[in-house]
Amino acid sequence: MRASVLSDWLAQRLDRGNGQPVYRQLHRLLQQAILSRELPAGSKVPSSRLLAAELGIARNTVTQVYEQLALEGYVTSATGRGTFVADSAPDEIVGAPDAATAVAAPLAASIPDATPLPAARALSARGARLLSGAGVSKRQWGAFMPGVPDVTRFPARVWSRLHNKYWRRMRPDLLTYAPGGGLPLLRHALAEYLRTSRSVRCTPEQIVITTGIHQSVDLAVRLLSDPGDVIWTEDPCYWGVRSVLHVSGLQSRPIAVDEEGINPSPDDLAQPPKLMLVTPSHQYPLGMVMSLARRRMLLEYARQHQCWIIEDDYDSEFRYGSRPLASLQGLDTAGQVIYVGSFGKTLFPGLRIGYLVVPEALAESFAMASAELYREGQLLQQAVLAEFIAEGHFTSHIRRMRTLYGQRRQALLDAAGRRYGSEMPAVGGDAGLHLVMQLPHDADDRAVANAALERNIIVRPLSGYYAEPASAPSGLLIGYACVPDEEIAPAFDTLADAIDSTLVQFA
After folding, report:
1. 427 contacts 435 by C-beta, under 8 angstroms
2. Over the stretch 14-23, which tens digit does the pLDDT of each residue have?
3. Cis bond leading into 144, ω under 30°?
4. 36 falls within a domain
5. Rounded to whole angstroms, how far apart are CA atoms 27 and 22?
6. 66-80: pLDDT as tens digits
7. Which of 63, 400, 402, 435 has a CA between 20 and 30 Å from the CA of residue 471?
8. What's the CA dihedral at 412, 414, 420, 422 to 10 degrees?
9. What's the CATH number where 455 sits?
10. What span, in angstroms and rounded, lies between the C-alpha atoms of 507 and 498?
11. 121 falls in which pLDDT band (50, 70, 90)?
12. Which range of residues forms the domain containing residue 450?
């Protein structure tokens, strides 16, 4: 392409009125010309003075573009000779077409417009399996989002004061990567809290700080099992940890729950798993508490068969009308339980701080693996959280929120009772941040959830938490924690309208 032809081609495509800087447009257009071989390797490009004059732009703009193209390897400059297109053709691939033919394309075709791989080819089998069962919502706030606390009641002033104190000190050690296991200050504060509030038996060294339940489960699975091993999960169970397991290579075996928690059958017990994942203090999502007899049975079974139990204690602090229950880990005498917790529901989800409590013999391995795999940071946040706990703000906040959530839970029960009586009861135990409303067995709870979302109400279909949604009971998870008291009744009426209209439509 001669200089005058190139200038004309560029002038036709530069758009002075689209808001994009001329520098960026010129850089992109010259890249396209070189990649498409309209400017072949070895050809000389116009001088910056000549091209600037032809295009009516500042010479400095063209000079900057040439310098950037040279840095990226598109052109080379020789003093006294000018600027030439570099040879950027890919190395020849055995069995491939001629490189020039393979790379060449019409100048008008932009590189980003290349046809992408079909999704079926782009994703791996485990990637496709993960996304096929994904439960994440595009919205994370509003009535009746399950599992989300009222972040507007978080003591932001206290947190800000502690945060500012650490920033004023400007400690470099809090701005680098975290040591294995997390900040010792937080591990000490957390060990004391767990001993007194959850009857967890541990030293600070047994605690590993993570970004939350998902990462905690992922780390435990990676270190304690191999692809192909079997893990028991409650049926139904939390979709998030099920997604973690989907990409782990484990064989997930769903075990039905009854009023006493996970309830393995004789056939299940005849085939010991490598891992069990349970929510004994408040089964997710149905809400029952695992009985003492069932807890002792699981612990003894794990001891006899050398199984690991992952105890997900996701919201045990919020119990209404009675004290929080002791942990399963506190009953463990054989060192078979991995205790998992998070501050996402007690403080705010965006904090992204969780933890594992592991048997003493595994503590060093877990701490080292966490640092090796995830290269954790967040030390400044961990320091603030440690002081927040040590000064008593954490327990005070939980106490206040427990009272508030108890009131909102009752308001939701009252609203459901007024509308439906015993026809569609709301259940879920006397703990947690959500209730489950039972729908008629033949109702499509996914359709109800979609109809509610059209009315700006967020609920989750219960069937999605079961291993076999098509044959699962129909119901809705209704979160009440993040809904102001005065909005619960009118929001439930809106939800009820969605329920009624959907049930009539599919009747």
Report:
1. yes
2. 888 777 888 9
3. yes
4. yes
5. 8
6. 999 998 889 998 877
7. 435
8. 110
9. 3.90.1150.10
10. 14
11. low
12. 396-505
* Residue 362 placed within a domain: no
Least confident of 191-200, 355-364, 421-430, 437-446: 421-430
Give the pLDDT confidence score for residue 106 in this predicted structure: 41
Which two tokens mark 200?
């967890």
In a domain, 10, yes or no: yes
Whether 101 shows a pLDDT value over 60: the answer reads: no
Q: In terms of Cα–Cα distance, which of 69, 83, 89 is closest to 26?
A: 69
215 token code pair: 């990462």
Q: Does 118 score more than 70 pLDDT? A: no
Picking from 91, 69, 72, 76, the residue whose alpha carbon sits closest to that of residue 44 is: 76
Amino acid letter, residue 107: L
* Structural domain count of the chain: 2
**Which residues pair with residue 134 across a beta bridge?**
none
Nearest in space to 483 (alpha carbons), one of 7, 147, 11: 147
Place of tokens 């729908």: 439
| Residue carrying the six token digits 């007194």 | 196
Alpha-carbon distance of 105 to 107, in angstroms, equals 6
pLDDT at 88 over 90: no
User: Phi, psi at residue 469, to the nearest 5°?
Assistant: -60, -35
Return the structure tokens found at 469. 């949604």
> pLDDT tens-digit profile of 262-274?
999 999 999 999 9
Distance CA 278, CA 253 (A): 12
Both tokens of residue 357? 């409590």
The last residue of a domain, from among 113, 129, 161:
113
Domain boundary among 70, 90, 113: 113
Q: What is the spatial distance between Cα 146 and Cα 285, in angstroms, rounded to a whole number?
A: 10
User: What are 254's strand-pairing partners?
Assistant: 233
